[in-house]
Design goal:
- It is built from 3 helices and 7 strands; from the N terminus they run αββαββββαβ.
- The chain has 173 residues and is of the alpha+beta class.
- Strand 4 and strand 5 form a beta hairpin.
Length: 173
């Protein structure tokens, strides 16, 4: 377990341990990719987002509820199909911030409060950026979906959110 945690820390910092310090090219200075270190299997759930028209949009999500899974997030993914996403679950409601250094695709970030209402949306977050993304309001959950989804689906601040299959998943500090 300790070795796995060290690997996640190394990946999050954009490098890798010297024992695995070669990328697919075989060079020690090659960039680490998801192909080199596949993400661990995460629990899955479903998020229902109420749109401005009164309908619901279902998203099948991987749930990131541990420090390692929240750090890894959707880094190094080359695509994210419509109807899929990742739900970040935090142990307490606070102002959350995300950066996209090793994220290869644009994402919409939907920030959700403890009351399961959307408190803010970051639209089409630029990939490979160190700029911190947040909404300046406390949230307990952050849903990442393909860039452009929120506008296409009519998702807005204040909309209700239902979480299905998350009751047994506890956020770890």
């Amino acid at each position: 377990m300790r070795r796995l945690l060290a690997l996640f820390v190394a990946i999050a910092l954009g490098g890798c341990p010297s024992s695995a310090g070669q990328g697919r090219s075989g060079r020690a200075d090659a960039e680490v990719t998801a192909e080199d270190f596949p993400a661990p299997k995460l629990p899955t759930a479903r998020v229902l987002l109420r749109d401005v028209y009164g309908g619901a949009r279902a998203i099948e999500v991987e749930v990131a509820a541990t420090p390692a899974s929240r750090t890894r997030g959707l880094m190094w993914r080359k695509s994210l199909p419509e109807g899929k996403g990742m739900l970040f679950v935090f142990p307490k409601e606070e102002d959350q911030g995300f950066w996209m250094k090793n994220t290869l695709i644009p994402l919409d970030m939907i920030f959700i409060g403890r009351d399961r209402r959307i408190v803010g949306i970051v639209r089409n977050a630029e990939p490979r950026s160190l700029k911190s993304r947040g909404v300046g309001k406390p949230s307990t959950y952050v849903l990442e979906v393909p860039g452009g989804f929120a506008d296409k689906a009519g998702i807005a601040v204040g909309s209700a959110v239902e979480l299905e299959g998350t009751s047994m998943i506890e956020a770890q500090p």
